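It is worth pausing here to work through a concrete case rather than discussing structure prediction in the abstract. The textbook approach is simple: state the sequence, then state the predicted structure, then interpret. We follow exactly that order.
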Amino acid sequence: MSSSPIRRSQLIAPFGVGALFVTKEGISLIGAGLDHWFSNSGAIGDNFDATEFQIEEWRLQKQLEVDYFCVPPDYRRPNRGFSEKNTSLTVPFLRFPQWHFCQRCGKMVEYPLTERGKKICSCERRGLMVQMPVVAICDRGHIQDFPWNQWVHQSTEPGCVGQLEFGSTGVGGLRGLQITCKLCKARRNLDNILSAEPDGERTHLTSNLDKAREYRCQGMAPWLGNSVTHECGRPIRGALRSSTNIYYAQLASAIYLPRRGKTAEPGLVDLLSRPPILTLRQIVGPGLTTKQIRTSAKGGKLVADYSDAQIDEALAIVGGIDAGDGHQAVPEDDEHVAFRRREFEAFLSRRRDDELNVSPVAIERYEDDYSKFFSTISLVEKLRETRVLRGFARVFPENDMDNGAFQILMRAEAAGYGDRWLPAYIVHGEGIFLQLSEQALQVWETRAGVRRRAKPLIDRYLDIQQNRRLRNRPISPRFILVHTLAHLLINRLTFESGYSAAALRERLFVSQHASRPMAGILIYTAAGDSDGTMGGLVRLGKPGAFEPILRKALEEARWCGADPVCVEAGEVGGQGPDSCNIAACHNCALIPETACEEFNRFLDRGMVVGTISQPDLGFFSEI
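Step two, the predicted structure:
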């Protein structure tokens, strides 16, 4: 099996640790754990320098409890006669699923995870061995080969180990696929193996593999090696290896906010956040002093122009003792809202930093019919976003797993202090930030009709939170309005900016705190190079350009191509993922999942522009 090229950003999502990837030869692989990254690389000895790939994002490091992040290595061909760093680096993948069947005779064979290349059957017809189309997964992130031997013998501990064959009876669907044991002549089709209760607590595979005993997840983690298993015991279900619920990358992202101090310069803070001083911090630990930096071989020269007071303050900032930005936390905020609040406040004022340029526009410069709905419109001419793969989920796109549980999935052995890292990459871009008028918003969201319309959606999500043990977070009319407006604008901006919907992203800032509420949207685009994008999005946020875009987006939202079905279906029982949308479908308000933070849920055009029966319901109904 030859090496397969893959973009570095795709090693974060969608082909990160634990994800399935199909090579150009048609072989299905699974991304290996972080223990194997940078360890079995082609560069050895003095030719390998891991610090080149280390990056810093101070807020995410604190939130995810890691020491640094690493970008996936790029592949560099060695030049003969030159001693170059980090050549021939690759990211390891393992062969999965391990069970294969012969396309000609149906014989089933299990191959090792490390097996390479195409395989040919030993039968007379010399058929190509193809990986089985079905695997087994649980909602704690585990995956394994489907238990073929147990399934055909209808026993969790079968006594027969005869040769298995895979074939078709000619009937459509999984019912027509059949496993046969050549020794005892047992046979069984695959009917209903994908079935499960909506909450995931009962699955057909767990309940029906063995009528006398439940078959539950064994905690297998083939991406970490066959020797690694976790305690689990959750219900397990069959899944087609091409289905979307096999893998949901759990990403954490942050807009870079420089750290400042009274005497410490931002440049000094950044200096202490990069090698070689970063390496020194990892070795010494949190007790690193200014004197140790000055006496170190490389660090002393780098900080020679700074005073001890500046270095002391910068060490406190990079150590998380003080962020140096004067931010006042809100005690009632949960972790997610607190993290976003810093960014929200940064977009409200003018900033001219190396990685963040924000220019608020006087709201009076916009037409009165539109400006009364907004408090702030800022043009974000430059931003830097760090995207981190913190873990992954299977079956459902979100769950209640914390950082510690995700870390267990990412590596076979826990990393020690100073060597805790996660894969990430940095992108640069531009955007438009909108803050809705808090005065107008509070009047709107207290209306009985607004609360009444949102209640069924909110109740459905509360049930989902309880059934799946998700984190407790409120979904409010304010959130539905902000989220739907972001989608409507993204869909309209694709016609004006030259960017596709998949190239744009939303970032939502919502809180109903009594004294410091939030209702903001950042619509931005981010590219993988250091130069970012060309300014086409910022231009559309300027006075005279933004108003026609908003007006057109609202006009299109008033009538969907699928109405009245779109409106009525949502009002009766909800629609979309988890039935958590009201008037929102692919014709009007849905966008590519890569652009949406909420998996295209919590959307309703009625909250924005009203409905046919209630035209005054929407926040923007007056326009």
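Step three, interpretation. DSSP finds 18 helices and 22 strands in the chain. The chain has three domains: 99-242, 259-318, 335-389+420-609.
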